[in-house]
Amino acid sequence: NAGVMQNPRHLVRRRGQEARLRCSPMKGHSHVYWYRQLPEEGLKFMVYLQKENIIDESGMPKERFSAEFPKEGPSILRIQQVVRGDSAAYFCASSLDTGGTSYGYTFGSGTRLTVV
Amino acid sequence: AQSVSQHNHHVILSEAASLELGCNYSYGGTVNLFWYVQYPGQHLQLLLKYFSGDPLVKGIKGFEAEFIKSKFSFNLRKPSVQWSDTAEYFCAALDYKLSFGAGTTVTVRA
Which residue, B89, B93, B84, is CA-closest to B102? Predict the structure, then answer.
């Protein structure tokens, strides 16, 4: 079982470009969560998705950020017109059950986004 | 949603010293609690979790945590740390999404 796969591991973008971060959940998991870790800070919840549905996006910035988890393929976190403040590590997690309340989450290795 | 607070931002100790990291969560009822560790440059790894049952939970690498419902606490302990325990430690609480504390950086000096 390959676990939660995130790619790329490192992503460098110039200000104004788009960043696309991909997350493939563990086999059999249909719940995906995105978190952002800023330097010197903890992990902040961004969005919770189930296949083709956004369950909770209360942690997503109102502009430039979007997420999807299509029926086929990985979950995508998309950041349009990146700014330096978007530089952070973005972690994806998946769970077998709703909210991970029975079995918890499994985390990926993260994507480190650097905006230059 | 739960909020989680960790008492210490940075802890520095010597090898073989005992470690205790404080964690409090915001409200009662059914709560699932976790401690994660993040070694430098790596992803989060689960140290231990509490869902129900024995409030003293044993995890990997010699760590344990005690759930005290009356104090809304879930403190992490290790009797004797090693240099390899240098890492950042996160407490987390789950209602239907996982909420993390700000983390505690632990530096173990050889």
Answer: B89
Taking chain B (110 residues) in runs of 10, the rounded mean pLDDT of each run is 86 97 84 91 88 93 94 96 96 86 94
* Residues paired with residue B62 on neighbouring β-strands, in sequence order: none
> Could B32 and A43 be called an inter-chain contact, meaning their C-beta atoms sit closer than 8 Å?
no
> Distance of CA A42 to CAs A68, A92, B44, Å?
24, 14, 11
CA distance linking residue A39 with residue B102, whole number of Å? 11
Bridge partners for A112 per DSSP: A10, A89
pLDDT at A67 over 80: yes
Residue B90: closest C-alpha in chain A: A42
- Give chain B's length: 110
